[in-house]
Design goal:
With 396 residues, the chain is α/β, with parallel strands linked by helices. The chain folds into two domains: 132 residues, P-loop containing nucleotide triphosphate hydrolases (Rossmann fold); 240 residues, no CATH class. Helix 7 crosses helix 13, helix 9 packs across helix 13 and helix 10 packs across helix 13. The radius of gyration is 23 Å and the shape is globular.
């Protein structure tokens, strides 16, 4: 069963304008399935060892193949004067191809959609051409609530939103799919790219990082528990970020009155099901865990909805006072958002939002996301909404 992805329209629009695209996203988020719907003239999968080795030996062979594809079309620029669409899956596997791609894009020989599940080699490798100004960059995440609304809240917090997981009908099959993902795609991806020489401390770090997802990035605690340096822990966090496993969220730090606002970033695992298995947690979670998971779910939904927009997701925290879980910052305006596990929110749940609204005139309203069955007014300019209504949040 195919589930429509919201990003598909943007990709079709880019291709219609003869623009090439770099589509990044974690493994198994549905990139290949989505791009097959665009009916490419050629689809190259560099995760395939035979294809990968051919281009590793001579990257320029791609230029010859695209010229041959152009000749096969019978027209100088593809059918009806439109360059052929070529998809190259897992392009980071052969970063040397980027120079050949630059030539082909400049010559308008084809429209390319390049996919990658790790930005590390593309961003940090030496002599790698990132095709600046030549491609449009997009990100494909696990399902958003707007794309796939089935399943209870608890299911979404336990199993996440990877297509290969949520489309499986039984809890046991979902659990096995997540376990396979953690061992195959997290541990082996790191090993295959030679990112870590000694996997044992990294494996322990991965478990700790998953357990602390949603919190501030802390180098000291895992350094002490694992017995490696702060520098090593920092490099581990960078690996997770570059491999699209975690996302960094920076705080809102400007204030006319407060001097002790947190300046450190916090992070989220890209998928709550992967997070749980990486943390080696079962399906029976203590009551206090659900609120933290709902907060992370809200953060992930907000991040995904803001991918292509001008805004940023922040959080707000005074080391000695109030804090707000999430703050949408967009076009000079702010929306503070608190997340509560309660089904019966009260004005007490809005107290930090009231403080925020009083201190930031560019914030016109605040929102409490919780399990209430109906939206309700908690205080002037502050409403509680059901978690299902999160996609409806707008600045206006």
């Amino acid at each position: 069963m195919y589930i429509n992805r919201l990003i598909e329209k943007s990709l079709r629009d880019a291709v219609a304008k003869k623009k090439s695209v770099l589509l990044l996203g974690p493994r198994q988020t549905g990139k290949t399935t989505l791009l097959q719907r665009l009916s490419p003239a050629r689809l190259l999968n560099l995760a395939n060892p035979d294809q990968r080795q051919r281009y590793e030996k001579r990257p320029a062979v791609l230029i010859d193949e695209i010229h041959d594809l152009e000749a096969e079309s019978g027209l100088p620029a593809g059918k009806a004067g439109v360059p052929p669409l070529v998809v190259i899956d897992e392009v980071q596997k052969v970063p040397a191809l980027m120079d050949a791609l630059q030539v082909l894009i400049d010559e308008k020989k084809a429209i390319f959609i390049l996919t990658g599940s790790s930005a590390r080699k593309l961003r940090r490798g030496s002599h790698i051409n990132l095709l600046p100004g030549r491609v449009l960059a997009y990100r494909l995440d696990p399902f958003r609530r707007e794309e796939y609304a089935k399943g209870s809240l608890q299911d979404q917090l336990l199993y996440g939103a990877l297509p290969v997981v949520v489309l499986d009908p039984t809890p046991e099959a979902r659990e096995q799919a997540l376990r396979s993902y953690v061992t195959t795609y997290l541990e082996e991806e790191v090993r295959a790219e030679a990112l870590v020489r000694n996997l044992s401390p990294f494996g322990r770090f991965l478990e700790l990082a998953a357990s602390e997802s949603g919190g501030l990035i802390n180098l000291r605690k895992p350094s002490q528990e694992i017995g490696v340096s702060h520098v090593t822990i920092g490099s581990y966090f960078q690996i997770l970020e570059d491999c699209l496993i975690v996302e960094r969220i920076d705080p809102l730090t400007r204030s006319a009155t407060r001097k002790k606002l947190t300046r450190g970033s916090k992070y989220l695992f890209f998928d709550l099901g992967v997070r749980r298995l990486a943390a080696q947690e079962g399906r029976r979670l203590p009551l206090e865990s659900w609120g933290r998971l709902l907060e992370q779910w809200v953060g992930l939904e907000l991040l995904r909805s803001m991918r292509q927009g001008p805004g940023h997701l922040r959080f707000w925290r005074d080391a000695t006072g109030p804090e707000v879980d999430w703050v949408i910052e967009q076009e000079g305006r702010l929306i503070p958002i608190e997340v509560k596990w309660t089904e019966t929110p009260t004005q007490q749940d809005a107290r930090h939002l009231q403080t925020f609204l009083a201190e930031y005139p560019e914030a016109e309203k605040g929102i409490v996301v919780c399990r209430t069955p109906h939206a309700m007014q908690l205080a002037p300019r502050i409403r509680a909404i059901p978690w299902q209504d999160l996609p409806k949040i707008k600045l206006s």
